[in-house]
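Thread: heme C complex, take 2
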Amino acid sequence: MKKKFMISTLLLIAMVSLFSCIKNDDGYIPPGKDNLQLPPLDPQLVQQGQEIFRYETFGDETFWTDQLHMNQVIETAVSPNTALAVGLKVDAAALPAAVVAAIQAGQVNLDDPQSTLVLLQNNAVVGVKGQVSQNPDGTLKLVRMGITCALCHSTVDNSFASGIGKRLDGWPNRDLNPGLIISLSPALDQATKDIYASWGPGFYDPRFNHDGLSNPVVIPPAYGLYGIPKAIFTGDGDVQHEPAGPVAYWNRYVAVTQMHGHGYFADARLDGWVVDHREGDDLVTDKLPALQAYQYSIAAPEPPANSFDATAAVKGKALFMGKAKCAGCHSGPLFTDVINGGKLHPQSASVAVDKDYVNRSATKQWRVTPLKGIWQHPPYFHDGSAATLAEVVTRYNEVNNLKLSTAEQADLTEYLKSL
Ligand code: HEC
Ligand code: HEC
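Output below.
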């Protein structure tokens, strides 16, 4: 433990000193992919972190099975077609050749929940862990189930079929309707079910069970985060509040307060909220350094070939740095404020439609969202209020009165697509 702590402290010191030496005299780091040098990650730690990210429930079966009875819901009502319809993804690599052949031959009934249990038996439903056994009559039974980080922060490349393919860890699952899934629990009253069911695909409210308000945010990517001193939209996560690191702060928050894993979370800034689900055993704390290292190892995806107009993007870049005033906040190689320890911005800095979410956070301020890989995850802003990057640009143009011509707005959009 002590050694791990020492290593992460040293890493942070190294990070901070690297940031200061790449800083120009005027304190501004020009955006660009290659000018942020970060210490290499320990490959073994990264490997452990991948296992945790994909398969670790932190013991949250006590919630999803014992309290919400989601095992019964899945067993009786969730066929593979239903699972795919609520945005769950299937890891094709986990399917045994016989199952693949049977699916291809049309011999698997995709409207039968029993087929879902076969997938779970093979650990093939992304983000869902199930313990499957056989009834005396030969049918399958879902004894216990829990969820992992991959549920919301992984998707698949659809290479086998829609919703079935190779895992893409860190890519937000914007098809997933977590609220609707939770609303199927027989343990909830109708009013609570209605709230969960109202969130829609790609959205989740990680504060509903704390303050009782319902104002969901889009599920963000968990890639491209190495080097950013603050985590989440509102920058709640930092080393001051979690020695293991900024992302680890939020990973502890979600693992304990949302997934209901066995662990402990407390933050005085959230009206002194304390959640103790240890049940005699902390299954979270020791896993945070590896889990964070894995997320840090996932780079933001490069834009697909020919997905933007390169000439227009060059003009757009000049606008981003100049007339459109974007780089004042989206500065440095990660397009967020790394040099000032991740300076946060007041409520008014967001041009999103929703103005309230920020007040429910620990900081009550905004972190400047990093923009690498932004092409990959529409809709934009924490409330998903801009459907496309063109809409993002129009919004900024109007709200900040930038006076960009139609052609300039188009160029700026092409630049955003190129990041
Ligand atoms: C039910 C869906 C869900 C699950 C499960 C979930 N997350 Fe998230 N995650 C979210 C949402 C929503 C946010 C945005 C919260 C905010 O910014 O206020 C988020 C934010 C994040 C961020 C912040 C990204 C950034 O830009 O700083 C990271 C990293 C992350 N999650 C990783 C994880 C890990 C690791 C786990 C497992 C311990 C996990 N998440 C489990 C929905 C989920
Ligand atoms: C005052 C600081 C500031 C300025 C100036 C600024 N941004 Fe932002 N930007 C933010 C903040 C804060 C957010 C997060 C807002 C939210 O999600 O509600 C954000 C979010 C975004 C997003 C959405 C990211 C996502 O993952 O959804 C994009 C794209 C973006 N900005 C592009 C730009 C462009 C282009 C400009 C210039 C026209 C610009 N920004 C100017 C602070 C700023």
